[in-house]
Write a structure and sequence with these properties.
With 123 residues, the chain is α/β, with parallel strands linked by helices. The chain contains 4 helices and 5 strands. The chain is globular.
């Protein structure tokens, strides 16, 4: 259900970039099928929770590729600031993952839901 732009095919892109805001919109869709691969370090404090998340720190990714359950649904890759996620997308493509999306800007640019004084989401 995701668009694959003609230019990406012509350029031979191994992955697509999506904005952090677009990724956030996808996370809000109940019917969307995707896996989010969080490659941030274990000590990184994540500013929000993301559904369908698999956490594999970037430095462990090569040895834990088999922990990603499927190559048939989109894999959205997020890191702290979006830099390591580019490298992770390249690595995934070497292992046969061609439906990968780099979340540009990573957690740093990802919108976070507003929380009221009672701990409830205001989205």
């Amino acid at each position: 259900g995701y668009e694959l732009h003609d230019q990406a095919i012509l350029d031979g892109s191994k992955y697509m970039d999506i904005t952090a805001y677009k990724a956030y919109e996808i996370f809000q869709q109940d019917e969307a099928q995707y896996t989010v691969l969080d490659i941030a370090s274990q000590d990184f404090v994540r500013p929000c929770k993301i559904p369908s998340l698999i956490s594999i720190p970037y430095d462990e990714l090569n040895s834990r590729i088999e922990d990603i359950p499927t190559k048939t649904i989109p894999v959205l890759v997020i890191s702290e600031d979006g830099v390591n996620s580019i490298n992770a997308c390249e690595l995934l493509s070497q292992h046969g993952f061609y439906n990968t999306y780099n979340i540009s800007g990573g957690y740093e640019k990802l919108p976070t839901p507003k929380i009221d004084g009672l701990g409830q989401t205001l989205d």
